[in-house]
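Forum: Protein Structure Q&A
Topic: Joint prediction for protein chains with partners

I've read a bunch of threads here and the consensus seems to be that you should model interacting components together rather than docking separate models afterwards. I'd like to see that in practice. Below is the full input, 1192 residues plus whatever partners are listed. Could one of the regulars post the assembled result?
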Amino acid sequence: MKPERWRQIEHLYHSALKVAADQRSAFLNEECGEDEDLRKEVESLLSYEKSAAEFIESPAFDVAARLMAEEENSNQKHNSVTGLSPPRFHILEKLGAGGMGVVYKAEDTKLRRVVALKFLPPELSRDPQALERFQREAYAASALNHPNICTVYDVDEHDGRPFIAMELLEGQTLERRIGARPLPILELLDLAIQISDALEAAHTRGIIHRDIKPSNIFVTTRKHAKIVDFGLAKDTSGRQLARALPTASLNQNNLTTPGVAIGTVAYMSPEQARGEELDTRTDLFSFGAVLYEMATGRAPFAGSSSAVIFEAILNKTPVPAASMNAEIPHRLAEIISKALEKDRDLRYQVASEMRSDLKRLKRDSESGRSLAKPVVENQVVPFAVPKTRPSGVAVWPRQHWPLLTVLLSLMLIVLAAAVLWFVQSRPAAQREIQQRQLTTNSFEKPVNSGAISPDGKYLAYSDAKRIYLKLIQTGDTLVIPDPDILKGEKIDWETGPWFPDSTRFLAVSHASNLPLIPTAEETSIWVISILGRPPRKLRDHAELYSISRDGSLIAFGTNGGKFGNREIWVMGANGEDARKFFDSDENTAICCLSWSPTGERVLYVMPDKDGDKLVSRAVQGGAETTVFSPSELGRINELSWFPDGRLLYSQEEPGSFFGSACNLWQMRLDQHTGQPKDKRQLTHWSGFCMNNFSATADGKKLVLLKWVGHLTSYLGDIAAGGSRLLNIRHFPLSESSDGAADWTPDSKAIILVSNRTGKFALYKQALDEDTPEPIVPDGYGRNPRVTPDGKWILYFAKTGAPPTKAPEPVMRVSINGGPSERLFIVTEGTLLMSCARVPSGLCVLAGPSEDRNEAIVTTLDPLKGLGGQLTRFAVDPNANNWWLDLSPDGSRFAATPSSAGPIYIYSLRGQPTQRIEIKNWSNLLNFSWAADGKGLFVVVGIEGGRVVLHVDLQGNAQPIWEDTGGSGETQAFPSPDGRHVALQGWTTSGNLWMLENL
Amino acid sequence: MEPHSSHDVTGLLQAWGHGDQEALQKLVPLVYEQLRAAARRYMVRERQGHTLQTTALIHETYLRLVDVRRIKWQNRAHFLAICAQLMRRILIDFARSRRYQKRGGAAPHVELNEALVLTSRPDPNLLALDDALKRLAVMDPRKSRVVELRFFGGLSVKDTAEVLKISSDTVIRDWNLAKVWLLRDLRGGTSDEA
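Posted by a regular:
Agreed with the consensus. Here's the joint model:
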């Protein structure tokens, strides 16, 4: 169908839906005119409209979870270990399961050895032909006695299920060992020689493996290669293979199969992909593919479906291995190419031929004749520092190192040391942090990065799309034009650190759709001069970390592994002399290098499977000092070694989601040992998260990116009896935290909590006004309620920090502002206020009873204060998250004992209590009555956000709004006239701030 | 899931997000385990009489998969999109593997609606739906994405809007028409091939 035609259909479909059902036919006749096909198509679609209402409304996971759970149950029944264990074996534990069956660790009670027992999948064991073939092959494999082939001890069956008893291997599969990273060349050659030896042994006995792939090769803890599953995939017709591995042949109707089966087809030989008769040379092709992956970290033939992979195997030459990994010796690349010849007559003919080539290469490599440079893992490549040079200067070995630089460096160090001595010897008096907001972007366009120049004059920053330069003193801002070569490219910018001369800074560009964790891939480093020269690219595939203190070196990360970048490199300030500084093996990564104030030590993060740890080490090498262990570093999202020797870092508060609340900490580190010199201290700059630290050279000004969660308010129009909310818009439009809290009785203004002046205060804002009117400028606490007559607002006054047991004064203030008066003080636990609307005059206060098993509801009068007890209702004494709201007519109240629900409607007029279970939702946080008294607006918590539901008194829930901010107090307040709902939600913005006096 | 797996998954998700199809192979079993665990929780809760919101469960699964700390907060939408895509691959693979298990790999024949037998809701046959979705993608890729995100990814309208950078109203309109189109396609209704 042509796109225009489809658009026409789409348009007409939506228009027709707006027309009453009985008039649609006439409407369509009119609209379609002569175009009979169009009318038919739209009518056909419309005829499905009703039946589609529930269609796919519950996520696919719903169905899958049931099926999975059902399967799990039946598996447990079938595979219970006791029922399964053959008499001679004592099953110890389950090791794993895969397409070829389940594997257990077991003790052979007769021979007293520990073995692996592999049970064949039931569908295979029911097929007599398959069973016979499997056993024949397994016996053949058991005849193979070779150190690099997993030994088969026995083939038998128990309870109708065939099993193999075989050598128990300890280590990991080659697939895991590779883990998407090239292996070190010597290790690669070592393993490859062993594998070729095993293939040679099997082939000379006429046994073909047919499924050589990294997951079928085991690397033991002693670095022995062991080929497993010999013969299991064997089948002369190709049919059996297709049965065991359902998607593995061309003639099936499943060429678009994605996912799991790819692991098998990716290593097939062309003749295997074509379903031809196979000989031993098929294994050599597959082995070539495995070699390629060992050398590059990637399989030679990849694709999103079996069809694409088959096509590549049959017709495409893989990307030369050497172009993917520069460390690969030329001769290894040749061996791989020869093994991957599509015509088997041009390939290696026998495994021994391949083995000889590999062995020769290994011999030459070890003697250093052929290898460019072996990769040394887990080792620091130290800076070469001749003894005559002062220690602590990071210098690359160069042939003509200018003496002047050395002298200058020396002077700088002396100077730095003097400054340091001065700074450190100052008394640490309690100082008040001065803060200044440098950028004012809204949350729709947050600042993503930025840095202050060392002289403190400029701020370079970015909102991802553009780079800006701001003169801090005047506030003037310039846009740095994108370089010409990037015109039209969709890239995002991040601005990085400045060079010490304050005339240049670095920036990073990366593809517009950000990767989850940015690594070096697709990331480039640029240098930007404020003197007007266009941005210049320094390096591709590099993730920027830092600039050395003297400005001579740029540290960057590259070679992304599963935990992050595996290598840190340094290069000169103009991108010259790039050289590897640190590297790590595939089980770790190394990140975020920064230099100590004198440049003597470096600090970096090492992520591995246990988490991230922060370590420091002398530039010249030597032992690592752990500054933070993984558990301590766990929630740190940014850190910087300050020019004055302090380590500043931002740490997430426990329980905050997506980093909505952090604290800024500081700690002194010893410059020589890297050891902490004192206990960490909270700077009391907290409550939001911060990263992108930069500082002026004197260490007096720190700039950081502050992300702030905002209370943000919205207004929506009620439709469909409350079950839909239309035209949801921001109200008020502001940069501050603004939370809607109640309405005036005429529905013309909302009561607003806002921190627009820097601290939270209470305001009233008319719907047709742009700015709110202050009501309580100071000392406002929480839970404001407008009294039914509209004359007063009752609220709890602020009492400092929020431990819930602190005494809280209940205050009254005129709706028009003026002085607040204290009505009384309450002293115990969570309390809530709620007011009805006219004509009822009722307001209530609810608080916990002494034993906390009940909430006591008491009348509350703006003039007389606390009145008599009305009623009590049961609450969960441990949960402390009960809720209550008085109905608009004052005749009932809705309450919940805890967030687990249910909601009870308690009558104040002697009617029976009604129980409401909200269908399909849990974790209810708060609620308000709808103006008509026929339902409630209920806020429920979901992972990552909150949902506002309209719930009728039968418990039917309709979600009307989702707050994805992830945190904060979502609430919904319906207007008394029943037309609007004011919503309070949460959004996050990013802006740069400057701190002084820290 | 143990912490190390979440590291693995984050890296793999990222690699896959970059178009690395091999990462997907490695990702599938890891995520599949998570889904199984989620399914277990789901059933336990259900047996205890709790109704668990599936969307919440999916979000929880996503969060257990990755080390959230390492995701930049600007990337939430991208993260959700990848998760939805991944969820589709896994659920489809799962549905497919069940088909093969049941038939022992015999030639495919018309697939009955397995899900219908087990649940009272008119849930679709996932494989047929996946195919129909591919047909829809040819004609209207955005609508197909909306369905992928909403149905397979369990995303809300708002999240879907954020991922696709379109308004929530557009998401709702796309969703409604896509559902009608898919249902008709699955029921073998005619389409205008003009």
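Chain B touches chain A through 110 residues (CB under 8 Å).
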